[in-house]
Structure formats: C-alpha cells, structure tokens
Amino acid sequence: MAQQKFNDSIARIQAQQVKAKQAEAEAVVKDSVNKVDTKSPFYSLTKGTEATTVLQNNKVKLTLSNKGGCFTEALLKNFKGQDKKSPVKLFGIGDMSFNCCFYNHDNVIRSKDIYFNIVNPSDSAVTMRMSASADSQQYIDFIYRLKQNSYLVDLTIKAVGMDSVLTSTVRNMDIEWTDHARQQERGYTYESRLSTLTYRTNGSSDNLSASREAKKDIPTAVNWIAYKNQFFSSVLIADQMFNKCQLSSKADKEGSGYLRYYASEMNTKFDPSGKEATTLHFYLGPNHYHTLSSFNKGQTDKWHLEDLVYLGWPVVKQINQWFTINLFDWLRGWGLSMGWVLLIMTIIVKIVVYPTTWKTYLSSAKMRVLKPKIDEINEKYPKQEDAMKKQQEIMGVYSQYGVSPMGGCLPMLIQFPILMALFMFLPSAIELRQQSFLWADDLSTYDALINFPFHIPFMGSHLSLFCLLMTITNLINIKFTMQQQDTGATPQMAAMKWMQYLMPLLFFFMLNDYPSGLNYYYFISTLISALTMVAMRKMTDEQKLLAQLEAKKKTSKKKSGFAARLEAMQKESDDLKKQRMSRQNKR
C-alpha cells in the first residue's frame, strides 16, 4: 500500500514536470518572433496573389480567400437587406478576420499572413493548403465542407508531415477571431440592444453585457462563441472545446452602419503530428429557433444553439418553447399575414387566461358591492388613532361575506407568465422581419407615423403609431379597471391610482423604439382586456351578487385568518393601553 502511494506520488511529480516543460516551451515559442521570418519554411507563402473561391447552396453564398484561407464574405440568399432587394450580407470584405497560430521552434506561423493553395474547389467543399515544402509533402490543410440545405460549414484542420516543422510539445493552436457586425435592421437602438457576444460552457449559455464596452475571461471550457445580431449570427463551434477564452465587445456609433466590434482569443487542441484532426464548425445564418435546435438531433453532446433566440426567464421560456412557438407555427401554416397571425394568437391567449381573468374580476365585483358597508366603517372611525379598529372591522366584514381583498392576486400571478411569453417571443421572431401589416412596412422594427428632424430624449426621432395606440388603450383600460375596483378610496389608494395612470406614459417612451409587431400585440391585448372588462361588467347583476353574499354571510361563522390576526393585534393593543392608563392612575 505504501509502495503504491509512493509510485503515485512519483507519477504526479513527473506529470507536473512534463506539464511545466510544455508550458515553458509554449511561452518561449509564443514570445518569440511575432511574424514569419526569412528563415521560416513559410516565408515564401507570405507573398503571393490573392484569389477567391465560392461555396454555396440554396441558402448561403460564402466567398473564401487564399490570403488567410478563410471567409471574406457571407450572403444569406433567403433574406433581404434593408433595401429589400439584395441578400443579407452577414459580413463583407474587411469585416471578419480568422487567424490560427501554429508554433515551430523559432517562430509563430499565423494563417492570416499566408497565401494558401486552393485545392479541389467545388460548390460544397474546398481545401486551403499551407505547404511548408516545395514537394508538398509537408503541409497544413484547412478543409471546408458546406452542408447541403444548411447554414453550417465544417472546418477540419489537419497537419501532414509536419513533425519536423512544428513544435511537438505545443499540443494546441491559438485562434483569433474578430467580426465587425453590420447593422441589418432599420432601428439601430433596438437591434443594438439585442446584439450580444454569446457563448456556451458545459450546461449553460451566457453573454457579455450589451453596454458600450464589455470584456470577460472565461475560466472554463467553451463549446461555442456567437457574434449575435438581432436576427442573424456568426457562430464558431469547437468539437474539442475552446480554452483560455478572452472575449470582448464594443458598440459602434449610430449611423456608422455597424453595431458592434466582436473579438475573441482562445485556443483549442491541435495535433502537430497529424494523427488527430481539429474539427471546428461555422454557423452563418438566421437566429431561427427550429433551425438552430435542429443541430441537437442525433448528437450526444447537444450544442443548444437555440439559446441564441431569447425566450425570456425560465418559466416564460418553457411556455414559449412548448406553447407559443408551436401555436405560432400552426397559425403561420394557414398562409395568413403576420398581422392576422398575431391577432388570432392574442385572442387564443386571452381565451386561455379567461378563467383567471374572470376570477380576478369577480373578486373586485364582490368588493365593489360591499363598498357601502366599508364606507359606513370609514365614517365610524375618522380618527387616525382608530386605524387598527377600522381595519379590523373592514376585514371582519370581508370575512363574514367570504370575500378576500387578495382574491384577485393569485389568478393574476397565474396568467402573468402566459401573457409575458408572447411579449418576450415577438422581438426575437425572425418570421416578422420585413412583414408588413396595415401602415407598418416591417413588423420587426418601429412603425414611424412621424419622423422628426431632431432627437427627442427618451423617445428618439420618430413617433410610432402602434405605440401611441397602445398607450391610449392602456389608459382607457386603466380607467375601466379603476372603476371596477372602486371599493373605497384612501390616500394610499389615490397615490397608487395616479401611479397606474403614469405607467402607460412611461411605457410610451420606453416602447417607441420597439418593434411595431410587439406594440401591435400590446395594443390588441389591452384592447381585448378593456372590452372584456366592459362585457363582464354588463353581464354581472350586482344586486344578485350582493344577495348571494348576504346568503353566504348567514351560513359563515368562521373568521378569516387575517381578520383573526387583526382582532388579536387589536386586543393586544387595547390591553397595552389599559395597562398604561392603570400605571398613570396609580401615579
């Protein structure tokens, strides 16, 4: 047993020594020459003539250059740019840079400096070859394969005969990847808010802050890194995982034509002997939930690229995944315009939450018919020192009639995640992009009723008609709701009512830059709520409801828990007062 522990200890020490030597070798190599010198076998490859080749299928057209051996342009054939004529250009010449660093004994070989040989080009595959010898027996291949009917490109990086050229102790390669993300939509403010550098570690996805500038070092292994716009993303995926990731994101100024400058530095496994290839993948396409989730099928380690489509907080996200998206797809299958799809979806959602809406309304109606009795109690105890007694009697009345002031809160809490699900889903629904309805020419961005020649703080340089309609209907709905809940005003209640009228005005300034499809949903949802409130008020016979409460009072003897606690507190307060008066009298 002791001998085994001794052997294990020796093995650990040896492993640490090997690791230390490897780290030292990496440090020496990486701190050496920062460019390919004249003695390098790759020096001749730093001079040449640039040439391009194209990979394409029915979805994308990708241009690759032999200078650097990577993409220079990506066009998405099935989506149009802001002019609604030319294809979306995910990135163009000078926007994207992809550099792999390999190490030999004296210097660093950077792929971005090398003119590759283009080997066996076709529409679906091409090999970019970096040869270290004139007889082409020593080289590194970048093999690109574009999948059919897909936005995914496989990249295999493999060394052949490079044992004597590359440092055998450095078993990884460094990667530097940057992208100047273009503004693809009309609304800079909102698109910038939804454009983030996103990454996935084992088990979860996260992103850098959407603030002006953000940097982060990731201590754990990363599966993929995504440069995300509102509706499109460039994603780099590593089968062998990325390590030592340093990520950064910096916002561009409005009007520049760009949203953000993304940059990543990381490393991944690389076998200089060529026995094992390094496998990477590029996803260059839309943030479409079903498209992204399709890459999970048949994989043991799922990528979960669908995390790029933000669907809200955990509970809301589940509702969107299992209900909202499926309902949306089903209605789209009817061939209706997006405006009608949103209208029908909103009606269906309102029908789903109607039972809870009715319970909330009924709770308010019961309190309203009891208002005369509450007014009597308010008149009975006008003094502030009698507030406890007044509250006790009010709660006693509610208890006798079987009414709870909080009876409408639980139904509202139940329906809230369902209503919020659609609100969270719509800004990320690429199906709304460039879809027109009524006066809105694009439901994925704001609808400008008026464009101002100047910028208004907190509002922007335009007025959204759907946002204006949403605000007006919200104010009307609040008025109806306040009338419904008029159960006896107090100074606190008056302040809360004033705040409720103020909220729609605040939302107007907040949502003026939001997508017209989202404001349209909010508008019709609020309008339906107001009409539902009016209809329920007309259907309610308040005299009959009061008679039902009177009948319940006769059979109810038990006080509510809250009323009993108030009574106990009042009794305790009275006892304390009596004790104080007794002590004062003795003096």
Describe this entry's structure for a reader.
The protein is elongated. The longest helix is centred in the first third of the chain and has 29 residues, at 2-30. It starts with a helix and ends with a helix. Strands 5, 6, 7, 8, 9, 10, 11, 12, 13, 14, 15, 16, 17 and 18 form a 14-stranded antiparallel sheet that branches. Strands 1-2-3-4 form a four-stranded antiparallel sheet, with no helix packed on it. It is an alpha+beta fold and 587 residues long. Helix 8 packs antiparallel against helix 14 (561-586). It has 14 helices and 20 strands.
Radius of gyration: 33 Å
Give the mean pLDDT: 84
Overall morphology: elongated
State the helical fraction. Answer: 40-55%
- What's the number of helices? 14
- Give the end-to-end Cα distance, rounded to a whole number of Å: 86 Å
Q: Give the biggest beta sheet.
A: 14 strands, antiparallel
Structural class, from secondary structure content? alpha+beta
What is the number of E strands? 20
Low-confidence stretches: 28-36
Percent of sequence in beta strands: 25-35%
